[in-house]
Amino acid sequence: MTKKILKRIFTFTLTFLFLLSSISFSQEKAPKYVFYFIGDGLGLSQRAIAQLFVRIKKGDSNCKLTMNTFPVVGIKTTHSADSLVTDSAAAGTALATGYKTNNGVIGKLPDGTDVKSILEAAEEKGYATGLISDTRLTHATLASFVSHNWDRHNENEIAVDFLNSNVEFLGAGGYGHFVPENWKYGESDRKDNWNILKEFHRKGYRVFATEKETNNFLKHKPVGKEKVIALLVDSHLPYELDRGNNLNTPNLEQLTQKGIDALCKYEKGFFMVVEGGRIDHACHYNDVVGTIHEVLAFDHAIKKAYEFYKKHPKETLIVVTADHETGGLGLGTGVGYFMKLEELKDVKRSIDHLVTGNKKYAGDRLAYLNFLEEVYGLDNLTKREMEKLEKAMELEDKNIEGDKDEYGHLFKSPVALATAHIISERANIHWTTFVHTGVPVPLTAIGVGAEKFGGYNDNTTIPKNMAEIMKVNLGH
């Protein structure tokens, strides 16, 4: 047999095997159940420190966050169309639609063209859908999956988009944008008399609103295919550190489980987006302990999805990523190679509690220092720490909120900021900013088609790959 014939046979064999593998992949069954987890502000440092904290707390150097056990790992760039540092609207749009847009824009291209989201594409194919967050439902990330608006802050308009979305399960905070002005049952952010929750009820939804409905919501067991909207606080759900044992609101884990319970009744399967939004808020405050506990709460929600996956491994896909990193969290800085996470174990409340809570600094320095020792574990203050607190107290005594560049746009209390930084610095942890950064973010995945999400690429590839695996039309 001549070399020429052998070469032809070899070429034919390779071509045949390639075509066979292509046919095999194209015939792979689409996942019936898809979970899309988005940690707002969740960079690699945030995932790492939460895992290290749990290891120290449990005394187990081998334990891992559930999201860190998934076999497929990727790194995603996050820039928007008009900035190397994205906001949550542009990042949410990229994660939802596969298109870049300008900061502040929801579900539109910079030229004004509306773009379809992966959730809208899933609805078209017959998937039941769910949107869950521990922030307001109308906040930028979830809004990117159902809305098309020039301005992420038009939350009253975005509330109407949720009404028209036909999403089967909606669980979050933020009823204030759905109820009329002067609503007698709770706070309203509307400037009209439109009760959008009543419109949901007319469309056949089971409606749970305000903290008083939490127990009814948690006890509710869907019978057959039901549509549910649960908005149990007027704005964001509380931070995990501030939740307490008796606080009458659900956490992200409970919302996720209720979403699974409702959507699994739909025979064609479901597509569910879960946002851990308060990670971002804690990072904006440079609140290291608050950040850790929000990451852990997010991971507990992921664990619920993973438990579901283990019952349906050949029908389920789970993707976990982030929209951007927040805070520029640095693990170990200055002189020496160390961190002291044990310093963080006695912190009992979020930094936000020092800004908006009833224990914020009010001029009584001794009382405030005693409170910091009792609730934030800040005893035996060093000379440098005391000087930092006293400088901040002097500013607040003079009613000076501080320069935005120095204190961050969220800080009305220089004392709260000083407290946050002392807590971090005791553990040898530092922050570079109060806002978002441009660093790429991690992704992990498991299940049907998960291998397509690995590698170093852009966040716009995620919904495109998801659409291919789910066999839905994203419009690209």
UniProtKB/TrEMBL annotation:
Its cofactor is Mg(2+); Zn(2+). Keywords: Coiled coil, Hydrolase, Magnesium, Metal-binding, Phosphoprotein, Zinc. This is Alkaline phosphatase. InterPro entries: Alkaline_phosphatase, Alkaline_phosphatase_AS, Alkaline_phosphatase_core_sf. PANTHER family: ALKALINE PHOSPHATASE (PTHR11596:SF5). SMART domains: alkPPc. Mg(2+) binds at residues 40, 139, 141, 275.
